[in-house]
Amino acid sequence: MWELKIQELLITFFLFLPLIRPFIKNLQAIDGLAWLPLLALGICTGMFAAYGFRPECVPLLLYGIIINGINAPSLISMIRGLKTDEFYEQRRVFTGIALGLLLVVSATALYFSPSPDIILNSRGISTGLIQDEAREGEFFLRVYKPADTGGPLLPAAGRRPLMILSPPVAGSVTLVDGLCRTLAERGFTVMTYSRRGFDSPAVDGAGKRRGISPVKNFRLLRAMARGSRSAAANAIGRVLEEERGRDIEFLLSSIRKNGAVRDLLLSGTDLECIFLSGYGAAGAALTALSGSPDFAKNNPAVRGIIAVEGPLLSALERAPRKTSPVVEGSNWFRLLRTDLSNRIAGLGSQKIAGMADLPRPVIPVLFILSSQVLNPRRRDGRYGTILGTLQRALAPALLVAVPGAGPLDYSDGPEKYPFLRVFFHGQGEPVWQEGEFIPGTASLMANFAALLLKPAPAGGEPRVEPSRRIIAPPRTRLGGELHVEANGAWNSTDTGYILGL
């Protein structure tokens, strides 16, 4: 994305000139150079406002803040009309270090700049707005259809299944736009959404990003980083899962009752054949809902659920605090000491002890996970709730992990935020190249849907209720040796169907 790189180069140039000014006589006469670091900081701040959170530019932003702090005396002197020559003594050691750091932060920003366009493309996308009056929530809807994206059109007699894709709270629809388009090309009508004041960011129909406060962003990052270890962070994660679950139930209710939503989906979509997919907290919320008999009863149109990298924080329980028992007959001093000791113990951070009751899905579920699930330590830790749910499921359940895939690789994240791959890497030798993850993930989802819509063999028990009105998504053969686990509810031990074999 050249416009972003041009701005990064401009910021670098504006920071570079004041640094070399003490050593170039012709530049020392230009007092206006003292304004350049402030201008560079303004451009860098504006980039975050225009393009959203750019992790590769954070070091450049911090560098700009530090340089502006150092440059403040020169700027103040110039504003007061004083001579600035005395502030430009030859500081070779400082300048050498500053130039070296500038090279590092600028190279980081340029090297990890995204190659595709990070702005959501609204061409051919239907958008809508609905209100949840009970929660005072405002939902921005985006609907993708094969006819809009240039994908293969279905036969006139067929009807498309609906895929409702709940995005991750951090990044929201900006991380699933490419995947939604690819799913539409696979034969789905795809609906995704963002909620104002909850998603970071919410994106309205005009493409305007509506972020959340820094405090909410900090709480969100805390839940993501420590939700499986810290009770306080886990409590935040539980709220995220609960809110995403309520979002999903509200959208399903709106499809049944809201004519405007049904019109947005238009003809050719079978609203009696719905698949739900979700990332992060949304994936965890869907997993919990799949284990609710009431949810399955109230939403018979839901044929299957796909949870992507969504460990269940709500299934973890906190460790009890270590307190001293009160000994009967103790004197007042001992009682006071025990009470004070217990109060001090209550001030410390509370940790997570283990798993509580896990859901038992009654709706078929596909778990798509990072290859870190292949690490025994991770299986017992971060992914323990998912593996336990997989084995406890009453309905057919599958787990798929692509060797080498990191937690973000099943989304648009690696293409739009390449810098994050440094911190969120996978396990083992990669079997997919960078450009294969979006089509590969869409194919996994489409193959799972095709599996559930597959006609029952003659004389055999149907896996799901067959529907003659629905055209199942075409299956795609996936390359590489993928890791697949199945629970005991499948009628067949052949799990190669989801891999297109």
Structural class assignment:
alpha/beta
- Percent of residues in β-strands: 5-15%
User: Mean of the pLDDT scores?
Assistant: 81
| Approximate shape | globular
Structure description:
With 501 residues, this protein is an alpha/beta fold. 42% of the residues lie in helices and 14% in strands. It is built from 17 helices and 13 strands. It has helices at 2-20, 25-28, 36-51, 58-79, 92-111, 146-149, 177-185, 214-226, 231-257, 259-265, 281-290, 293-298, 332-347, 376-380, 384-392, 413-416, 437-453; strands at 126-132, 137-144, 160-166, 189-195, 202-203, 209-210, 269-279, 302-308, 316-318, 352-355, 365-369, 397-401, 483-486. A nine-stranded mixed beta sheet has the order 1-2-4-3-7-8-11-12-13, sandwiched between helices. The chain has a two-stranded antiparallel ribbon with strand order 5-6. The chain has a two-stranded antiparallel ribbon with strand order 9-10. Strand 5 and strand 6 form a beta hairpin. The two termini are 38 Å apart.
Short description:
The chain has 501 residues and is of the alpha/beta class. Helix content is 42%, strand content 14%. The strands form three sheets. The chain has a nine-stranded mixed sheet, sandwiched between helices.
